Amino acid sequence: DVSQINLEHVLPLNPTADWKVDAEQARSAQRLLGNMALMREAQNRDLANKSFDQKKTAYAKSEYETTAEIANWTTWTLDDIVERQKRLAASAVKTWPLSFEKNPPGP
């Protein structure tokens, strides 16, 4: 239900000083898929701009595997975000393979 689930930006759109990231790095990360996670709307609202360490607790409890795994990261830098994005892309190719055949085989 899209009214109950929304997109969480791990590195927030408006990071506090706790994040120790400059505005340019934050802007670079904001639109990267590697920086996004599915969260229940209420949890996402509660997380807001909290530090990564504070957010990790909520991620660890997530019912969504790709969100829960974020809790395993020790840092959340632009390099970490890009690395996670690469992992998600590799998983996506396996999960949703493309076929360019005119008439793909049926079930």
Per-chain topology:
Layout (H helix, E strand, L loop, with lengths): L4 E5 L13 H8 L5 E5 H7 L4 H9 L4 H4 L9 H18 L12
Structural notes for this entry:
The chain is globular. The model has no long low-confidence stretch (mean pLDDT 87). Helix content is 43%, strand content 9%. It is mainly alpha-helical. It has a two-stranded antiparallel sheet. The chain is built from 5 helices and 2 strands.
Features:
about 110 residues, mainly alpha, two-stranded antiparallel ribbon, about 10% strand, globular
Sheet with the most strands, sense and barrel status: 2 strands, antiparallel
Q: What's the shape?
A: globular
* Low-confidence sequence ranges: none
Structural class: mainly alpha
Q: How many helical elements?
A: 5
- Helix-strand pattern, N to C? EHEHHHH
β-strand number: 2
Strand order within the widest sheet? 1-2
Strand share of the residues? 5-15%
Q: Mind telling me the C-alpha Rg?
A: 16 Å
Residue-averaged pLDDT, rounded?
Answer: 87
